[in-house]
Here is the input.
Amino acid sequence: MKNKKNKPSGFPFRRYTQLLTAVLYNANLGGFITGKIYKGDTKGVCVPGLNCYSCPGAIGACPLGSLQSGLLSSKYRIPYYILGTLLLFGLLLGRLICGFLCPFGFLQELLHKIPTKKIKKCRATRILSKLKYAILVGFVIVIPLFKLAPGFCKYICPAGTLEGGIPLAITNETLRSMLGFLFSWKTFVLALTLLICVFCYRAFCRFICPLGALYSLFNPISFFGIKVDAAKCTRCNACVKACKMDVKKVCDGECIQCGECIKSCPQNAISYGVKYFEKNKPGRK
Amino acid sequence: MKRVKLFLAPALLILAVILIVAGILGGGFADLLNKARMICYECIGIG
Here is the structure.
């Protein structure tokens, strides 16, 4: 076993990257005061993480909201541009986006730092982690395809309420007068989500987030991310024990590539890099 | 799996680029821009 002092510390700037991402996605800070959303050309570009495009600060489009609105109008045109963008993000980074480039994930991690008793991962959380795939199919694909509504945005998305609904309701009197049951429901979902995240690490990402579910499909074949040197791996399972997500092995669909396993590995077998050119197959954990 | 990965990832990457280019040429960017420039009432809880 190697000295702890010599151990790599994962990616030391992850917190700064998350913070910078949140600021960059919402760089139109004046919008939070005026209550008006940004209308520049960058709004036609999807950002990789979950960030509501109705947020007054948002300078880009949410990929999930874009996909739903694209599917809603797909009678006239298939949303090739949005599908291609999602495919590109997934292939390049997989769920590294969840770990580094998602402001709502960052918020959940901060909430989990509040010192209380924590719910640890178990069989129940592993089963619950499959729920996000059902939400992806039902609310993001089927409901919009049947021209009913952008299902996830309308009934569930707590990021939309936090980043779009609440700031706009505070600053825009016209919108405030239009609020009704749906806003109350979404505020309840948001409050419940944030509360659960205090006790359960990244509960929204693990159980609900359809964007995470989509990116998880690409996690094993993404170009960049965490890789395991099979020659060094002793299958001690320290990485899986250290991980707070419901992973069965490093870089499976549940892995958000946060780098906690890098710190825990006694053999220094795990690292960030270009996975595509790795010589050794990731070891089973 | 390794062999599948070797071909699948580059093939999908090429597909992604083709989809993006086709989408932009077909007006996908302009479509998204028009939608994202307006407040999504469902997203913020009015709908």
Notes: Chain A touches chain B through 53 residues (CB under 8 Å).
